[in-house]
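## tool: complex_structure
## caller: assistant
## args:
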Amino acid sequence: MSPTTPDNALPGAAFRRGFVDALPICLGYFGVGFAIAAAAVAGGHPVWSPILQSLTHVSGTSQGAFSHRAIPGPPGGGWELFLLCVGLNLRYVLLALALAQKLPEKIGLGRRLLAACTVTDENVALAVSRPFALSFPYLAGVFASSYLGWNAGNALGAVGTSLLPASALAPLGIALYAMFVAIVVPAAKVSRATMLCVALAALLNVGLSLLPEGARPSPSLSILAAGVAAAGLCAWLFPAAGRKTTEHTEAASPAPAGAEGKEDAP
Amino acid sequence: MTHARLLALVLAVAAASYALRALPLALLRRPLRNPRLVAFIERLPYAILAAMVVPDVFSSTGEPVSAAIGFAVALLLALLGRSLPLVAAAATAAAIAAFFALRPDPSPAASPAPEPISATAPEPPPPEDFRDLSENAARSSNPPRPDL
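## result:
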């Protein structure tokens, strides 16, 4: 049986197919969203905060950074955290470009702007690995499925946590870091330059956190500085030369999450 | 920060996140060419994530040994290529098991907590590490370093 082309199928069928194809993502997002929202509320966030973030950011990494650092109470701060989230979400530029390669050319600006909502690591990995041309209804199905799982998880995590004692949730804080590990490690495995880059960033941040109290930057700033310095240095030393950017190779080959970096250190 | 400031920050990040997704789809019909720029954009998120994890992961449960166990489980499963939800669930389960297994006797003031789950050989932490559960929770949500 040849793969159905949702382009030629009825819009409803393409939507359903996208929805079903993304169900594993939906379930995964549900669990991770629950943990992130639970940790945020346990850490002092008002219940609306993780719910509004999950509805509008649709980004586990920046929401995780956010929940952990923007703790209501102490005054001041903000711009470093904003830059940190922008830095984390910079990868969406490349993911959106990868998705753009797979979209039908005739797709209009309005639908392109809507399709942008679908851009997350897992959704794009799924979309570009499909053996057929993508259609707008198919993407809408992928979006509906993953968005539902993500927000349901966040809402339940946020509300449920407010009913539980914070002490029962202390060890949940690690779920977020485990998620980050699960995103970083596959990317570091396929590229030695990326591995060097992430190791350097972690080392720099440890170094900054060991500075004496007065000379130490705030955690957000220190993470941002370590990340920018490591990525900048590694980009200078090992440009992504061996690779034809996001052109045909990426659209043609299944791209597991975080496999954008296929280049290797020279 | 105040709740108003938190709300403003949430909305600002929402706008920026959407712009990062939409602008390439709307404006750039051709892929980026500059190899250094591509390398930077590609690796910056991973670099920031790595810096977020290390060293803060070790204070993520409020108790370093259980956090280190969870971190090790996450690294191992991720190296084996397991999926993100599985890595997150397994690491959390391991950290929770270790957390309650290694925990000293709860003080009577602490809320009723589950019994030790795991059969891991308990290594009682040194007495100065003793903290009751609520203090652990407070520590995990407010890392030792001053926050924003």
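## assistant note: Residues 35-107+114-141 of chain B form one domain. Chain B has two domains: 1-30, 35-107+114-141. Handing back to user.
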